[in-house]
Design brief:
Structural class: alpha/beta
Number of strands: 16
Radius of gyration: 24 Å
Mean pLDDT: 95
Helix content: 40-55%
Number of helices: 23
Distance between the termini: 27 Å
Strand content: 5-15%
């Protein structure tokens, strides 16, 4: 009979209350979920037979955090800081999260975008310790066995990537799993989902990145990417295994590319509790910023015209969420669709072109665009002027494409245009915030996808709101898990957007700042979770309620709020 090395104890609300350790001696220090390092008390050291394995002094968690912060401060760059935090996580999960929580604003760009992109590119050379699950064609037939034997049994959220569309840098083969690790750390920091409830999964179906295939140190399955039926069978085998082993867990699809992202999301929507953060999370946080912009300039969403420059998964996801919200606010579906333009590398996406299926929904009928007659007409600037665009969104990854002429065109249409250069990382941003302020005489309402330093304009410093998905997906996940939602609905992402927009202070709105500060991540995430949970109850998709707590919300939003408040985890030693 297999004996668990340790078992967490849970309270009425599914919250962690303690841990039973079935090991003794040095082996305890090998498990990052239970190791306290130098914080083990004298009594614990004696009882757990740790005496002699640790130096004399017993430190508090606070002292350990300060020591780690001192070490991080001496690191030369962000990738070195990333490596240190990841190695700390591998030794002591509680301490790593306590360090991050001490200054979320400083550490979020290190554990996630933009630094995590470098970590993906250097994954094989940086590999030190196994984290999460790697599935590939040689072991996918045993996926159920592999998942069932994962160290942590009480999985509530999994982040799953096929590694193809990583953060603007593309196909990274097996190297995409740091994205999953980073996202799950944000689930913990934002929504308080304990690390032992989180599972990162890499679906390594090969790579078309020739640099990786030629690298003798590459750790992934060294073959071209599976495509067509072979790829579909691989994904289906994974889904069948996942829903059997973790039937109540949330599966977040991450960094799938373009058509694949939509196909996988839509095919398995009713088979596993799932959503795609690149599509729906990006749409939700962008909508939140746009809603804030409408408050800032006291205009109606239904009076705007939107242009998404970059018709990939994220761009079309944004269009989807805007369209959903326009309908919620009373517009006809067709009329709402005509307000949303998308542009790809060939120009405005129109129905007379040969398009990938996911682009069809927001393809415009050229008969409705009399100004679009020749290829010379089909430019970003002309589209802005002719369609009278008031909200410009960048998801193209084309550095600097929002130049002075584009800003001038936007200013001709609106006194306070909304300009959102969202491409990640910072080097791919369509424009720098300081330039947008300068070119628009401080009138543009600006937010970015990556972190930027504050901008000083006319002697005043302005914080640049970051439309970071971290503001939405952790709370969406917690709302789904706590409510017991059996299906993820589009309205969840609208609810999240409204929750985030409602968190922006009056002073920030007056200054044209469109996102909350990152140090409010936990508060925003809990607000999002409660609003999403309420929508799940209202939609009647909560089934038997939360599968991970004895406390039942009985489809009462107030009881659900109580459950959410008690369910969240904070980094403390048990």
């Amino acid at each position: 009979m297999e004996i668990n090395h340790y078992e967490f104890e849970y309270g009425e609300y599914g919250e962690t209350t303690g841990v039973t350790i079935n090991l003794r001696g040095f082996d305890i220090l090998r498990f990052n979920n239970i190791s306290k390092g130098t914080a083990f008390s004298i009594e614990e050291r004696i009882r757990l037979k740790l005496s002699g394995y640790l130096p004399f002094r017993v430190k508090t968690l606070e002292e350990q955090v300060q020591n780690s912060l001192d070490i991080i401060a001496k690191k030369e760059n962000d990738i070195e800081k990333f490596i240190y935090i990841r190695s700390l996580y591998d030794r002591n999960v509680v301490l790593a999260h306590a360090v991050i929580a001490s200054d979320v604003t400083q550490f979020l760009p290190i554990i996630y975008t933009p630094t995590v992109g470098l970590a993906c590119q250097q994954y094989s050379s940086m590999f030190r310790r196994a984290n999460g699950i790697h599935l590939f064609p040689d072991n996918i037939d045993y996926a159920e066995y592999i998942l069932a034997n994962y160290t942590d049994k009480d999985i509530r959220v999994a982040v799953v990537t096929d590694n193809q569309g990583i953060l603007g840098i593309g196909d990274q083969g097996a190297g995409g799993i740091p994205i999953c690790l980073g996202k799950l750390m944000l689930y913990t920091q934002g929504a308080g989902i304990a690390p032992w409830h989180c599972l990162p999964i890499s679906l390594d179906v090969g790579t078309d990145n020739q640099t990786l295939l030629d690298d003798p140190g590459y750790l992934g399955w060294r073959n071209k990417r599976l495509t067509g039926e072979a790829y579909d069978r691989f994904i289906e085998k994974f889904v069948n295994a996942f829903k059997k082993v973790f039937p109540k867990a949330l599966c977040q699809w991450e960094d799938f590319s373009k058509q694949t992202a939509f196909s996988v999301r839509d095919k398995y929507l009713d088979q596993v509790i799932s959503f795609n953060d690149d599509i729906q999370g990006t749409g939700s946080i962008t909508l939140a910023g746009i809603l804030a912009a409408m408050k800032s300039k006291n205009e109606s969403l239904t009076d705007q015209v939107f242009l998404v420059n970059g018709a990939g998964a994220g761009g079309v996801g944004i269009a989807e969420q805007i369209w959903t919200e326009l309908i919620e606010q009373g517009m006809d579906e067709t009329a709402a669709r005509k307000r949303i333009f998308t542009i790809d590398s060939k120009g405005v996406v129109t129905t007379d072109r040969d398009l990938e299926p996911y682009k069809h929904k927001f393809a415009q009928d050229p008969a409705d665009l009399p100004w679009l007659k020749t290829q010379a007409d089909n430019t970003l600037k002309n589209a802005i002027l002719q369609a009278k665009v008031t909200v410009l969104i960048g998801t193209s990854g084309q550095t600097g494409c929002f130049d002075p002429s584009i800003v001038d065109a936007m200013m001709q249409i609106s006194k306070k245009p909304v300009i959102l250069p969202l491409s990640n990382p910072t080097t791919n941003a369509e424009a720098l915030p300081k330039d947008l302020y300068q070119w628009s005489n401080g009138q543009a309402l600006v937010a970015t996808g990556s972190p930027f330093a504050p901008v000083t304009y006319n002697g005043k410093s302005y914080r640049i709101g970051q439309m970071n998905n971290a503001f939405v997906f952790p709370g969406i996940g917690l709302g789904i898990v706590a409510s017991g939602a059996t299906r993820v609905l589009p309205v969840f992402f609208s609810a999240a957007a409204h929750a985030v927009a409602g968190f922006i202070s009056d002073q920030d709105l007056a200054d044209g700042i469109l996102c909350p500060p990152l140090d409010q991540l936990r508060e925003v995430s809990i607000a999002v979770a409660k609003q999403v949970g309420a929508e799940a109850i209202n939609a009647g998709v909560t089934g038997d309620g939360c599968a991970f707590s004895r406390f039942k919300h009985n489809n009462d939003p107030e009881r659900l709020n109580t459950l959410i408040d008690h369910m969240v985890w904070n980094p403390v030693y048990y």
